[in-house]
Write a structure and sequence with these properties.
The structure is a homodimer of 353-residue chains. Chain A has 353 residues and is of the alpha/beta class. Chain A contains eleven helices and 15 strands. In chain A, the strands form three sheets. Chain A has an eight-stranded parallel beta sheet with strand order 8-7-6-5-4-3-10-9. A five-stranded mixed beta sheet of chain A has the order 11-12-13-14-15, sandwiched between helices. The first copy, chain A, has a two-stranded antiparallel ribbon with strand order 1-2. Chain A is elongated, with a radius of gyration of 23 Å.
């Protein structure tokens, strides 16, 4: 059972509300060059198709600002400007259509520069994510012997206090580490101490395989605790993969679901059909559906009928055949080669009934 | 921070202690036919190479018993006999070398049959896993309106009480559901109420992609709570993949680690090298290492030097070049094409120093 969501303030990122119990928004970040707005917009469209709701774009240099402006104007998703080091880029981004800024105030430099960014966001009426990161903690934390999570939280809290002193509370906070445990500890402390919506993620989580596991464990623990108002899965992979993993984590905890759910068994010495390709093909075809149907693909009679009964549409395979269930009732028996098409027919019929 | 492990009794599965704070053992299950002991033993060897510590083999019919006996005799891992419906197979398995039985007493039938299995395991001195599963709950729970987790726990607790009444306490308990939330709720209740080691897993988790996410979320939440003494990841995929995911979950929470850790960034518009293939190639080569070295592959200067500093060996990429770090100190700069080989050289040198 997922714990009740932590209470937070809310901010508006374009048309998307983040915090105060709003649906947990799935984010990603483009890895194209913002100086090429067409390539970036094409990637944003792909991300939107995969279920991305907020997209972040890096502005490394001023020569990316014109591209960024066009991206904001034409993007189907709210665009967050990701800026490091140079406060002038952040100020300019607020004037070019950014729906939110993401900065790590610790690398922006002197206070008056940070203040200029805060004021520009205030004038534009857009929120700022204070994005603290274990890889770029401010100098003052490098040499003390606090646990990493404590450094991250202290750094984030100090920035929040400064923003508040400037009259700015349109804040989202993140404090990411590549250590899952440090990430969990940091966000648990942030949720206890700050009133702002939290952007959760495990940073530099790694390749598709290891990063999916680390993000699922880290974000899973936090979400089960009711922590997190928007999430990003970081993978060294196609960013659309980040979006798919993000949705799958939310679906695993029954928090949000974008499409069908597939239950399938791990196969064992009892399985008398070649189940792996059947399950994979069903998964592939279900990807095109956006209805929340539950499908069970089961290889034998031990748990098969039970799971199939609990699903909208299911199959329990026997010796070279599949018994198809609809809403728990067996409806027909088909040969192995026709299992996938029979399941898809039943799913389609379900949508029409 | 992972919570302290729940206190449990311990059982011995072959040479592996499960429970009472012992290392959380990684399990899998063969999907070969036990009537073909050579194919099954070949798969067990592959599983052992991947890090599997306990392996389960299904005995669907009596014609698999001879194969099972040979598998037990020659397996490099303790072998658990997985038996449903037919108590005679379970009794016979205790005499053919099983290191543990896994049954769901609810489908074994009359009490005297369950008792005969308990007594046979007692004579052989091997433990029994009481494996309750949402897909095969006893009839008596089908129609009441309890939450699924409560049914699973009540069923498991009733079986434990019966085993105890027979003087048998050499028990491992599992109560799996394909719902992650039901799984979490069930195991939290089991950990509170029963003194036995817990075998954790999300059943019928699905294909490699969805199943990895569901298992990582579900087992991650439980392990972070200090719950779980042995685990199995269930995937509709090659069982060696289950073992890799299991280890990755344990590594994500710093509970156990079998080999190197790779930290790598998600790439963004700031990245000036083609990082994804570099990270994938490093991950592939690291798989052959079983030393706990931490390697960082970072695409830019924002978080790159910070993460690279925190790793044993790291690279922070710039414009077509990589700056290699050893224990936080920059040691050399190499062209993009040489990043992988330079990292591997440094890792090898680390092992020698």
């Amino acid at each position: 059972m997922v714990a009740p969501r932590h209470q937070t303030r809310s901010v508006l990122v374009g048309t998307i509300t983040v915090g105060n119990g709003s649906p947990i928004a799935v984010q990603s970040m483009t890895n194209t060059d913002a100086r090429d707005p067409l390539a970036t917009l094409a990637q944003i469209t792909r991300l939107a198709d995969a279920g991305c709701e907020i997209v972040r774009v890096a502005i490394p240099h001023s020569d990316a600002l014109d591209g960024f402006e066009r991206i904001c104007a034409e993007s189907p998703l709210p665009v967050v400007a990701d800026i490091h080091f140079d406060h002038r880029l952040a100020i300019e981004a607020t004037r070019r259509g950014a729906a939110k800024l993401r900065i790590n105030p610790g690398n922006i430099g002197a206070t008056d520069r940070v203040d200029a960014v805060i004021d520009a966001a205030g004038e534009a009426g857009i929120p700022i994510r204070i994005g603290v990161n274990a890889g770029s903690l401010a100098e003052e934390y490098h040499d003390n012997d606090w646990p990493l999570a404590q450094k991250l939280v202290a750094s984030a809290a100090a920035f929040c206090a400064h923003f508040e002193s400037r009259g700015f509370q349109d804040i989202v906070v993140s404090a990411k580490a590549s250590s899952v445990n440090a990430t969990i500890d940091a966000y648990r402390a942030l949720a206890e101490t700050l009133p702002y919506p939290l952007h959760i993620g495990v940073t530099e989580a790694g390749t598709s395989f290891a990063g999916t596991v680390k993000s699922s464990v880290g974000l899973g623990v936090l979400l089960a605790d009711g922590i997190g108002d928007t999430l990003r899965v970081s993978l060294t992979a196609d960013p659309a993969e980040e979006v798919r993993v993000g949705w799958e984590i939310l679906a695993a905890l029954d928090i949000r679901r974008r499409g069908p759910e597939l239950v399938s068994c791990p196969t064992c010495g009892r399985c008398q059909v070649d189940l792996v390709p059947i399950a994979q093909e069903v998964e592939r075809r279900l990807r095109e559906l956006h209805t929340p149907v539950k499908v069970a693909v089961m290889g034998c009679v031990v748990n098969g009928p039970g799971e199939a009964r609990d699903a909208d549409i299911g199959v329990a395979a026997g010796n070279g055949v599949g018994l198809i269930f609809r809403k728990g009732e067996p409806v027909r028996k088909v040969p192995e080669a026709e299992i996938v098409s029979a399941l898809m027919e039943e799913i389609a019929a379900l949508g029409e009934s």
